[in-house]
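## Example record

The block below lists the input lines for one assembly entry, exactly as stored, with component labels intact.
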Amino acid sequence: MTTTGSSMLLSVERLGIRYRIPGGAVTALSDVSLALGRGRTLAVVGESGSGKSTIALAVMGLLGPEADISSGRILFEGTDLLTLDAEARRQLRGARIAIVFQDPFSVLNPSLRIGEQIGEGLVHHNGYTRGAASSRAVELLREVGIAEASAVAAAYPHELSGGMRQRALIAGALATEPDLLILDEPTTALDVTIEAQILDLLEELRARRGLSMLFITHNLGVVRRIADEVAVLYAGEVVESGASAQVFRAPRHPYTKGLLAALPRLEARREPLASIPGRIPDMRSPPAGCRFKPRCPFAEDPCAQPQALAPTEDRLVRCWKTDGLAATQWPKAAEDAPQGRATVAEPAAAPIVAVEHLSKTYTLTRGLAALSFEGWRPVLRPVRVRAVDDVSLTIGRGEVLGLVGESGSGKTTLGRAILRLVDPDAGTLRVGNEDVTRAPQPALSAMRRLAQIVFQNPDSSLNPRKTVAEIIGRPLRRFGIVAPRETSKRVRELLDLVRLPAHYANRYPHQMSGGEKQRVGIARAVATEPRFIVCDEPVSALDVSVQAAIVRLLAELRDRMDVAYLFISHDLAVVAHLADRIAVMYRGRLVEVGAADEVLRPPFHPYTEALLSAVPTIEGPAASRIRLPFEQRRSVADAGCCFAGRCPRRIGEICDREPPPVRRPSATHTIACHHELATLADAPGTVTH
Amino acid sequence: MPAQLKAGLVIVGVIAILGLLAPWIAPHPWDTISIRTRFQPPNATYWFGTDEYGRDVLSRLLMGTRLSLAMGVGATLVSVAIGVPLGLMAGYFRGKVDEILMRAADVLMAIPAIMLGLLVLAVTPPALWKTALAVGFVYIPPIARVTRSVTLGLANEDFVQAARARAESTGYVLFREILPNAWPPLIVEASLRVTYAILLGSALSFLGLGAQPPSSDWGLMIAEARAFVDRAPWIALAPGFAMCLLVIGINLVGDGLRERLDPRLKGRVEKV
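Predicted structure tokens for the full assembly:
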């Protein structure tokens, strides 16, 4: 984009940034140009390591001392920010340019009231008195859709939910009436239903205040929802930029094509997910030519030449083959087997896992902390949370049960309770043909070999002090699966099974990428030749391009080893790609269970419906949007429906008071709701909160 | 190898070698009294001067090296051998086990170290190994606490859950999964404890409860030189400086080891 700074609010021109590290430098950005007009939203989208956060920090002037700006300019209203001194930049920061960070849990100071933190900028930049600032803070909180604004202003951060905190942060960023709002992954740490609300809010604010937004994210669905223009970043370079509607409709750069093909979509759950093989190049010495060449299926010799970001029709693309590839799709890998199977495993066979009326309650306050007073009489009243509340489910042999729910719904606790990593309070639990509900830990050896687990966070799930060979070899030795002499041979076979080269056996976890670590985690789980694996958000921490490959690997292992999964995820689209059946969990209870096709079409449980409507899609704005109130109404009795506090289709008192009846649209489908099935089958109009 | 580790190893190594070879390289007998050569300041014959009995300070210093090193390392080994397993258990099991172990540690820490040492040594005739044992005992709580706090974090890591999901024994989880990751802070703590132990051992010797005259423990040397510090400061300065150098050396080794032991800081392999 050759626009000069004058007409644009922000324009980044040929920005190059490197980080100095011991023994060299890592290239974070090279030759990045972006332009953002007034009242527009520009999304910068890229995977981890693409350098997207560096852009945000550079514009804010918050780069650390190890960052080295090697070239380029950042023009804000025509002034080059990089030439300003520290004090001038500080004046701009917060006053004219504000930022909202990713994690609302760590950005707010836990020991200051929300109101004070929002008003701080006003006192600082606009000369407000403390009193005036705090009343303005209440107004701002109201503007971002918080009803009890004065109560929230007086609250401390820990008293608020994640969605509330993110609203408060946005209110704080808006306080000084900035012209430019930078949002660095503002919804990544939030649940989908909350994310949808925050995006609504941002759209509304932009329309009302004429804000310009620089939106940084890895989530393509979010980009489609909010951005006018999009710049796709790969390995520190913009590879494609243009109007977001056009880029999404017809991606031109191979990387963009791959990213879009790898995105799991509800509408296409039978179609295999594509993935992008390989990983980003070593940025200590980035390749001179096209940086995507090693991973690109269309690569040819001329790709070794440096590529320029060249205008093509309606956008800029950094690929010399653009025109020739215009109509070409990202290839589907030959090995692709369909991931969702048309037929559900026969329920007649004895299930591998049978759970009945399982409950687990956590006591949050113990001992003296639980002490309270009734008048003068001391009473112990511990705070308890029902993480899993009377859950019954079965998983057939070789079957994939998807478990969907938002954070705090108890899905992880349920998964771990089934493996007896958490001891349930009540109910029965059968794994294989064995009742393991009360068996002491040492007696669980047989079950432990039969049932394994794959974790969400590949950094935490592998012991950083052990090599891959030790990590995968340990279960082999522990259960005597192969003769000790054969261990290293079997480790190589397992590595091959998860598609890692044999020499990875000598690596430590920190020497691998996230996707590779996750493969090692999967190899460790299948080493015991289990019949059942709890996959606890196995792809949530991974980039989209890697996510698809892991989902495909899991599908392949299921077919080859006839292993059943409890596939836990907050992402319905991912679950839909793999699951035979889906269970939807809310506040410790299963609100809907059924075959995947049944759950994904009406009749819906109101919560399932809200989840489906909140899933961001790249097909454009959804026709009807259901938004949940972002907070639980108080005073909902335990006896009632667990979802009554947020339900957009709440009938009335009955929802709060009585447990919902279980309705059965079909033999395999259950919905727990007071509504009649006929009512649930009706697609309701837009429900607003 | 980190530069700190190199420097530390050189310092500690040289001191240890000098200590080991002391009987052969000491220029004079370390315990022969000679009234005629009393209070000689450092000179060509007696490099570090002589003490109130005319004994060569350098020779005594060299002979005392073994005692001080044995004291520091021995006491630390005792506290690590007992404190680390206790800390692992407290951090892993939490609840009652943690409560009991940590309250016991609090009680132990509430009593000044020197008092505890005195308590142990006052009831039995003093001997160096007893001093080492007593000092080691005194330093169990800090080692246990550091171990516990590291364990608390590590016990929540998924690789520990993965080990439980393979029905690994508690011993395996504690010593094979958790402990290797707990070493870096423990090594720093332990190296710190070596120096504290040398100092506390010297203090006890100074009070007459550790090494006994005519032994040349550094603490005892300082204690004995105290009376003449105005007339002959070199008698106290020499062991003081020696102790200082050893303490610095050990701390450098500790810091360096922590860096060296972290696999994340080892050279990354080339990406394939």
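The first helix of chain A runs from residue 52 to 60. Chain A touches chain B through 37 residues (CB under 8 Å).
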